[in-house]
């Protein structure tokens, strides 16, 4: 019961996103779809789920599944012949929209949730398959259907709760249950663990294994290779829109070999050397006994020029909210914030940058970080307009030079400087947002979850950049849920739980085992 995306081609203006990519899925397996930012993963998924139509290539589904849906593409003689013997019994389909793909048994869980927040869990799960009686919604049957789907996943959840009251991890499980309600044989999970904690990730993978054992094909798109190796059976690697490994057993590869396949050449991780902060250096940013309307209590910390201070905690611990309170986006109700020794009350991100030289790379880049309808040049230059403008005018060439600098440093995949930011792949949009702040003339940089959705090679380049910036004298407050990232970069790590700091871990040796153990201890100790 193979599903096959066969030699797909898709071109956007100036970019060949897919150039003959093939994805072959077998039932009862977890399949990793890997590749650098811009390699074509999302485009492939969009074609398989009927959102985009390919310019070339074919989608083949098992004959049973093909009968009820999708448009038959041509005379019967075209249909059955597959590229190999094992594809006999497959049927080519052309999806004219997502519903066709759904009817062909292909379901997807996107990074951007597709749930209706005001609807209950049951209403969301049954959205595409609402049971009706005499034309009216049969609410009892709808609840039953939802409970059945959640049970099959081993998930306990009140089906009458509104989705808006759920955690991110629970919403994800509801989306998977929704895909089960339409009996998806193939389930595509696009970076499902990006905002999950380690425990939630483990639980999700338990669900994924269950789906596999039921005979479904689960596709996992992820940049977190440790996780991929923990759960996937087979792998397809895309590079520049082509498959360079095709439905291969993952066990045949090491992580390093997979990275080399993605990158196209040997990729060696470099050791990062950062200058230590001179003793006696005065803090650039200092908080004393800060409380906020959101619930922070007695938060004191300081970051010195040349230092990277890590702020670690589980999702929901209050780390991003603290950063936003410092920047005036939430009210500070007690305590003091000092910038270079002067008590300060910042009222906006703009004021933070222009008056206090504090840059803020938001976690929420889609909404806050990138102007999707603006060209890339404008996006990167937005923080430095004051510097670039001569008599109120900004020269295109200056903007272009700036973009070129960061395009090279971060390996941003773009078709030209005039391209709109909204046309980049997710990871490349992320890089644009980072570039904008790296270009800004800041003394203090607050960076929130910088590398979510960013591929391995860029992550390493980005880490190098952060270390350079700190070595050049920037004070950096780094918020990250990525523990290896924290251990690699931070000089010290503060642990936050329930809007309070629970302790500090020195990270002088950057030794993963000892630092992560100490951090885990603080997280746990605070829970008691
Ligand atoms: N609507 C669009 N218009 C123009 N170009 C596009 C569009 N969508 C994608 N592209 C381009 O196609 C290429 C592949 O993008 P795609 O989103 O499939 O990559 P990806 O592998 O999913 O990357 P990421 O890991 O960053 O999510 C990129 O170069 C991207 O800029």
From TrEMBL:
One of its GO terms (molecular function) is ATP binding. It comes from the Bacteria. Pfam families: ABC_tran. Keywords: ATP-binding, Nucleotide-binding, Repeat, Transport. Residues 63-72 have a biased composition (Basic and acidic residues). This is Sugar ABC transporter ATP-binding protein. Residues 3-265, 270-523 form the ABC transporter domain. It comes from Actinacidiphila acididurans. The keyword Mitochondrion does not apply.
